[in-house]
Target: HD domain-containing protein
Amino acid sequence: MYRMVVMVMVAGDISLDVGKCVQLAIIHDLAESIVGDITPHDNVSVVDKHNLEQCAMLLLCNLVGCRYLIELYTEYEQGDSREARFVKDLDRFEMVLQAFQYETDESDNKISSSLNSSTRLVAHLHIQQLYTGQMRYTKNVNVAGRCNQTL
Model:
C-alpha cells in the first residue's frame, strides 16, 4: 500500500490533484484487510471479487462512520476521475514491480512474461513509459542471469 502512495507522490503529473491521488492510493486496497489479496490464481470471478471487496469496504466504513471512504473507493473502482484512472494505472504498474520482485526473489522468470498483456490496460502515458522501462530492465536482468548460469 505504501509503495503506491510514494509512487503517486513522485510520479510527477502536475495536472492532477496529488492529494486526491494519495487518498485514492491509500484507500484502493483497504478491503484487502478483510478479504485478503484476491489474485487471478484464486479462481474468484471479477464480479465476486468486486462484491466481496465492496462488502468489506461498507463494513469498514460503517465501523468508523465515514461515508467519504466509500465514496473514494467507488471513485477508484469506477474510474470516475482522472486521478482515479491514474492511480489505477499506477496499481497495474505496481503489479509489474511486485512480480519482478517475486521473480528476483524466487528466480522464477515465468511471472513477468505473463504481465506483458497488462500494458494495454494502462492509459496514462507516463505510467506506460515506466512499464516499458521496467519490462526492458526485467528482460535485461533475465538475460544476464541466464548468461551467468552458463558460465
